[in-house]
Amino acid sequence: MLLSKDRHIAHFDLDAFFVSVETLRNPKFRGKPLLVGGGSDRGVVAACSYEARKFGIHSAMPMKIARRLCPEAIVVRSDMEAYSKYSHLVTAVIKDTVPVFEKASIDEFYIDLTGMDKFFGCLQFTDQLKKKINKESGLPISWGLASNKLISKVATNEVKPNGQLEIPFGNEKSFLAPLSVIKIPGVGKETGYKLLKMGVETVKVLSEIPMEMMENLLGKSGIDLWRKANGIDETPVVPYHEQKSISTESTFQTDTIDTHFLHSQLVRMTEEIAFQLRQQSKLTGCVTVKVRYSNFETFTKQITIPYTNADHVLLQTAKELFNKLYERRLLIRLLGIRFTHLIPGNYQISLFEDTQEMIKLYQAIDSVKKRFGEKTLIRAVGIGGV
């Protein structure tokens, strides 16, 4: 295992990604308070410009409240197709330039530059990569460079927008010390409130609390938090592979041409792996449907889509692919569906253009499935043949 002093990890984060894409497409938005998300008052804010943030607006806020805080804000309906396109573009630039990288979300990357300091110098290389991304995509991006993923991410957050910061090995604790505890990745509102209530406001104070006490207070997560406060993180950069997938298929007991039955099976399978996507906090950017006929000939059809993990989007896509694929009207013995181009992401981010009611509905459905089993709640059309 490499020592921390031998590791060089860069964290790249596209600044206000959705807003930046909209501004790139329409320069008149530059410098204005811009909100991206659902168009109606029932929608939620997916992203907001730095100008809008000055009014106290933040992502996931109900659009109605955001408009009340800043009546002059410009509201743009989200375009996930465009955001996915630019995400793929930036990913391609990074993939062609660096040896190992991890795509942490649609707009966030970790890059392992360990060993490259012997040849180019990691600081110079990271700076050149930033310029290359900006030149080829037109998007602003910030980066942090440190001995581990934790410190590089916090460094990036401290210099956004359009900033860059290197934290040399040995300076991790002194860098973190004056920061608020809520700036530690993974510290949510509940934990942050508990720490602040105890008088623990800075990372320095948090780092000085004995690990045993942290464990008694927060369980295993307390130990993890103590390690973070002390700048310790051995988490590896997980290489990004486009072809990671979640899939399922079904071979029927009797070959069939019953389209109602086939559609019901497609709905059932799509719901099943879409739920798995959300459980793993992932989004898919590509859907593939497979059909095997009674003569064992197998055909597939796939389509690249805006990143999502929403049933209603994936079901519509799967049905359209099946209808294009099933033209021969022969008996079918197997039907399958696969999601690829997976990246980390959650429901609130991927479905921000929907209403709060839609988001709450999906959260309630997933809560029931998680508690009682994923087959306890399915669409009626998916019951056929089960």
UniProtKB/TrEMBL annotation:
Sorted alphabetically, the keyword list is: Cytoplasm, DNA damage, DNA repair, DNA replication, DNA-binding, DNA-directed DNA polymerase, Magnesium, Metal-binding, Mutator protein, Nucleotidyltransferase, Transferase
Q: Which residues form the active site?
A: 108
Q: What does the UniProt cofactor note say?
A: Binds 2 magnesium ions per subunit.
Cofactor(s) the protein requires to work: Mg(2+)
Q: Which PROSITE patterns match?
A: UMUC
* One annotated GO molecular function: damaged DNA binding
> At which positions is Mg(2+) bound?
13, 107
| One example of a Gene Ontology biological process annotation | DNA repair
Question: Which enzyme class?
Answer: transferase
The UmuC domain extends over 9-188
Q: Which InterPro entries match?
A: DNA/RNA_pol_sf, DNA_pol_Y-fam_lit_finger_sf, DNA_pol_Y-fam_little_finger, DNA_polymerase-Y, DNApol_IV, IMS_HHH_1, Rev_trsase/Diguanyl_cyclase, UmuC
Q: Which CDD domains match?
A: PolY_Pol_IV_kappa (cd03586)
According to UniProt, residues marked as the site described as Substrate discrimination are 18
Q: Name its cellular compartments.
A: Cytoplasm
Its UniProt entry gives the catalysed reaction(s) as:
DNA(n) + a 2'-deoxyribonucleoside 5'-triphosphate = DNA(n+1) + diphosphate
This entry carries the following GO cellular component terms, namely:
cytosol
Could you say which EC number(s) this protein's record lists?
2.7.7.7
Keyword ATP-binding annotated: no
Supply the Pfam families for this chain. IMS (PF00817), IMS_C (PF11799), IMS_HHH_1 (PF21999)
Task: Give the family from UniProt.
Answer: Belongs to the DNA polymerase type-Y family.
The job of this chain, per UniProt, is described as:
Poorly processive, error-prone DNA polymerase involved in untargeted mutagenesis. Copies undamaged DNA at stalled replication forks, which arise in vivo from mismatched or misaligned primer ends. These misaligned primers can be extended by PolIV. Exhibits no 3'-5' exonuclease (proofreading) activity. May be involved in translesional synthesis, in conjunction with the beta clamp from PolIII.
Q: Which HAMAP family match?
A: DNApol_IV
**What does the annotation say about its assembly with partners?**
Monomer.
Protein name, per record = DNA polymerase IV
Phylogenetic placement of the source organism: Bacteria, Pseudomonadati, Bacteroidota, Chitinophagia, Chitinophagales
